[in-house]
Amino acid sequence: MNDADDATRDAASPTPSRSPLSDAALDQLRAVLDEPDLGATRYELREPLGRGGMGTVWRAFDRELQRDVALKVLDEPVPERAAAMAEQLLAEARVLARLEHPGIVPVHDVGTLPDGRVYVAMKQVRGERLDRAMTSGLEEAQRHRLFARIAETVAFAHSRGVLHRDLKPQNLMVGEFGEVLVLDWGLAVALRGEAALREVAPAKAEAAEGEARAGTPGWMAPEQAAGGPIDERADVHALGRLVDALWPDGRERPLRAIVAKATAAAPAARYATVAELAADVERWRAGAAVSALPEAWPQRFARHYRRYRAAYWLIGTYVVLRIAFELWRARVAGAA
């Protein structure tokens, strides 16, 4: 066989093609590259729990307290963004440390790794995101209970001068025992005039009075999407969207009125506080009149009748029987 034959044979032989890495393989490779070195800390790395816009959340073991924690580690950013991203992560941790409430994940520790990356150690949350829980079906009573607890948590944050700005089912967690947690406070800002948050997160406090456009389309209030000044009513708007998502088939006029008022385009037309919205939802649940829907007397009677239908039937039956008895007695007396 000559060289020409060899060349022909080599040309005819198919060149092995390189198969691209699968998404799972790429994720695994990324995780290995991003894997933090915890040798100088009290934590032992276990496994990745998820990725976010700024970093990766890992399950880690706290050797000193003998418990699992969620470790949020800043990704290695480009140098010019490193300081800003680190400050943003630390600002979120300071906000969470300030908001001590059963519905908010507590922060245990903050620090810096040998490679300069900032980390925050938090309670490890076990449960299911609300958006996934809703697809699997929630009972009516459970929907009311979940919304009441979410509203209570957000109202607490407002009482401490903090706006969430990114309330949506993906940022709400239903725990193993029915507890509800409001997650992802990375976009939280101070209410106007709140000096306390400026002490822990000065850059974030400025956003409440200036640039407020950050958030999720479809859940942001119009003034938030426009980058204007915001207050508690921006979170009220998001909670109104949540009411609509929790009861997507709601056809009752009071419920539609509640959603319409909570999500009104003009902030002045909305509920002034989360507590007012939660109270109206509770009144609707109890069959009482809601502030979002003024009633004329026919509507008031119809609502009252629906609520006390059995009592109305008992009273009506008694009245009819009483009238029939009196007519019969009068007729007997007349015949005598």
What would you say this structure looks like, in words?
The protein has 336 residues and is of the alpha+beta class. The protein folds into 3 domains: 23-123, 2-Layer Sandwich (Phosphorylase Kinase, domain 1); 127-286, Transferase(Phosphotransferase), domain 1 (Orthogonal Bundle); 297-335. Helix content is 48%, strand content 15%. The chain is built from 13 helices and 10 strands. The strands form 3 sheets. It has a 5-stranded antiparallel beta sheet, covered by helices on one side. Strands 6-8-9 form a 3-stranded antiparallel beta sheet. A two-stranded antiparallel sheet has the order 7-10. Strand 8 and strand 9 (180-182) form a beta hairpin. The chain is elongated, with a radius of gyration of 30 Å.
What is the topology, as strand order, of the major beta sheet?
A: 1-2-3-5-4
CATH topology of the largest domain: Transferase(Phosphotransferase), domain 1
Note the gap between the termini. 138 Å
The level of helicity is: 40-55%
Question: Which overall shape is indicated by the principal axes computed on the Cα atoms?
Answer: elongated
Number of beta strands: 10
In percent, how much strand structure appears in the residues? 15-25%
Largest sheet: 5 strands, antiparallel
User: In the CATH classification, which architecture of the largest domain applies?
Assistant: Orthogonal Bundle
Classified by CATH, the class of the largest domain is Mainly Alpha
Helices and strands, in order, run as: HHEEEHEEEHHEEEEHHHHHHHH
SS summary, helix count: 13
Quickly give the structural class. Answer: alpha+beta
Provide mean pLDDT, rounded. Answer: 82
- Domain count, please report it: 3
C-alpha Rg (nearest Å): 30 Å
CATH superfamily of the largest domain: Transferase(Phosphotransferase) domain 1
* Low-pLDDT ranges: 7-13, 194-211
